[in-house]
Amino acid sequence: MRLRPSTSHWGAFSAGLDENGHLQVSAHPEDPAPSPLLGNLPSALTDPTRIAAPAIRRGWLERGPGPDPKRGHEDFVEVGWDEALDLLSAELLRVRSEHGNEAIYGGSYGWASAGRFHHAQSQLHRFLNAFGGFTSSRNTYSYGTSAVVLPHVVGTATDVLRNGSSWPTIVANTELLVAFGGVPEKNVFVTPGGVTRHHTPGFLAQLADRDVEVALISPLRADLPARLDVRWYPIRPATDTALMLALAHTLAVEGLHDRRFLDRYCTGYDEFERYLLGLDDGIVKDAAWASALTDIPAAEIVDLARRMAARRTFITVTWSLQRIEHGEQPVWAAIALAAMLGQIGLPGGGFGHGYGSMGDTGDTGPDFRVPYLSQGINPVKQYIPVARIADMLLRPGTRYQYDGAERTYPDIRLVYWAGGNPFHHHQDLNRLRSAFAQPDTVVVHEPFWTATARHADIVLPTTTALEREDFGCGRRDSHLIAMHRVAEPRAQARDDHTIFAGLAARLGIEETFTEGRTAREWLEHLYGSWRQHLAGKGFSVPSFPEFWEMGEYRLPNTETDRTLWADFRADPVAHRLPTPSGRIEIVSERVASFGYDDCPGHPAWLEPVEWLGGERASRFPLVLIANQPHTRLHGQLDGGAVSQAAKVAGREAVHLHPEDAGPRGIKEGDVVRIFNDRGACLAGAVLTTDLRPGVVQLPTGAWFDPAGTICVHGNPNVLTADLPSSQLSQGCTGQHVLVEMERFAGEPPGIVVNRPPAISRKRDM
Ligand SMILES: Nc1nc2c(c(=O)[nH]1)N[C@H]1C(S)=C(S)[C@@H](COP(=O)(O)OP(=O)(O)OC[C@H]3O[C@@H](n4cnc5c(=O)[nH]c(N)nc54)[C@H](O)[C@@H]3O)O[C@H]1N2
Ligand SMILES: Nc1nc2c(c(=O)[nH]1)N[C@H]1C(S)=C(S)[C@@H](COP(=O)(O)OP(=O)(O)OC[C@H]3O[C@@H](n4cnc5c(=O)[nH]c(N)nc54)[C@H](O)[C@@H]3O)O[C@H]1N2
Ligand SMILES: [Mo]
């Protein structure tokens, strides 16, 4: 058996087919901590849900394009590639001539796979740009709220994410790590584009060796490894801002704040202090106040504030904290708190965002831009904040606010998705189903019959990364990996690139799209220009044939201890921040000028709807945390061995506290029904005392398997609210939702999403 090199968002590996045709996978030999998710790969080629041939929804084929509530409820008809591409190119031309390019939504959010040439979204955007453009999307489901608020406070999200203390610096210097959301080890195996050497698990182990004090602030103990001796503050979800304000209040009233730092590097501290002291609203944000909200004893809050002031303290906030209503506030409040401690720019001090959210945060690997495919220029200027997809489809022409501007939703007639799964990532999936009934046509490229593919009109089967040639490399990755073809394409699957080239030929834009190159020639071309670029910087990089033969290229090290924050600390005038004042804006005049009641001009405690203190909690008394799964990446390879092994009674496992299970008569292993007024899902119960009572945890990613308004498989997004974080950022708020839960009596309905939908092989019209 010959093992060939490849990589994935969760790690580099080599793979080959054994004599029985089974895929064998072996982690990269230099990976100190290979991801358990590699175990999902072996069944990827032959999973029963692989899409075999182009398929068209029967109603669309018979009645033509148009809004249709039957989308997602009808069978499919397999057609040949030529017929599928002819129909699709004609429909693209119709939509363009009748409604203009703006009527095509090509935002197509999603992670696709690791290879950088066959990156599905880049291919789609390049194709649609050649066709005259499309309505696009801004920001992410990952940190869409931070991406909008951070430029007002400190600079771009990229500045913040790439410039915190590195893990080695933290391990060497930090005395107290205050981790809001913890540093969940399950998440750090993942970096978009690939990762060859997983360093963060090793750094987490070093925290223990070096006796760094760790404060874990999270409803879940699992957010830091069990082997770490942490002080666990099992906070009530969505109340971190209150805790941060009380910590800040303690610093202020005890004179533990760094006045010199605040004066020299920040704006607005005095106004913020008035707010902490309650001088205008009459509410003193002290530890007693926060204790009632957070359920952390006041004495512990005061004690933590004093310890933070007395030690080199690093405050981290996971991205999950901003994936809720008013998600701006905990991020902004953490920065204000770190500014009061005055340690921003000192090694191992200050704040960070996304440590434990992504593998590259805090990593010190090489910092290179890897080869990528140019997407061209989009002549259409219309876009939406990415999480407003359902609003846009349901309410064309409606005005909304975004980052200080009024915008209008376009009227979308054609939705085109390649490399993402909105029926995984979006909230309130029953609402999304109504939204997907609105356009004339929905097109999806997918290797698998995901729920999104099942809600399309034209479904085009694509290869997986294992069935084509590419190269992959994540941010801070140590290697560029040659991704060799390990197996022939499944059934009739084609590469996204080949599909778009076929459409481009029909639309007269082939030359613009392909520039006359085959896929292999593109790889050589992109690699070649990248190699030249590096040569200009004095690096000697092997030729393409050498790289391909070796299977990888170890990138030169660019490690440096200089960060934007250290420079800023050294000279805040020469290294002014890209904010209006050039300083850290504890108060932002600009945000204040927008006049948003859901995002005022400084960090503030604002009550969300989906939390245990509100009115809704009397009907739905449990808060469900829908975090990232430890058994897969999002919904990818849910049929894989690692993902399947963790299912309970064939469904996604929901973790709950015995104190919540007992009164509901729920026992370990029971099928439970989790519900609220938006929908319901079934899941398998797992009892644990490692989360706070009143909190249940059901990760994202079980493939949506609807029977009416209930998902029989355990997808939490049937329950979550399609509510924006605020008018400022319009970010997604999928992390928390209020629910009730009961034991499911009787025989639970079977899972059907693990088989293809109904497909007719012949056209019998
Ligand atoms: N409730 C709740 N919801 C959430 C979150 C949460 O915390 N709570 N988290 C959010 C976050 S942070 C994110 S990033 C999103 C993730 O949401 P997505 O990125 O949409 O999820 P994936 O499952 O990674 O979807 C990628 C899809 O691309 C397909 N694919 C892989 N390779 C190829 C290819 O070469 N070509 C094509 N055409 N397709 C390919 C895969 O089969 C898969 O179906 O989910 C968000 N949703
Ligand atoms: N294995 C795996 N790793 C992944 C992914 C995956 O799908 N699988 N997805 C990747 C992607 S796209 C992204 S964007 C990142 C996401 O990174 P994050 O958004 O940081 O990850 P989550 O796991 O959703 O949340 C982290 C933890 O925050 C805690 N938390 C939730 N609510 C609260 C709260 O109100 N207060 C406090 N203090 N803590 C809270 C939860 O206990 C949760 O485990 O992960 C990446 N890593
Ligand atoms: Mo994400």
From TrEMBL:
Residues 23-44 are annotated as: Disordered. Residues 622-733 form the Molybdopterin dinucleotide-binding domain. Residues 50-505 form the Molybdopterin oxidoreductase domain. SUPFAM superfamilies: ADC-like, Formate dehydrogenase/DMSO reductase, domains 1-3. It holds the Pfam family Molybdopterin_N. This is Molybdopterin-dependent oxidoreductase. It comes from the Bacteria. Keywords: Metal-binding, Molybdenum, Oxidoreductase, Periplasm. PANTHER family: TRIMETHYLAMINE-N-OXIDE REDUCTASE, TRIMETHYLAMINE-N-OXIDE REDUCTASE 2. The keyword Oxidoreductase applies. Its cofactor is Mo-bis(molybdopterin guanine dinucleotide). Residues 6-44 form the Molybdopterin oxidoreductase N-terminal domain.
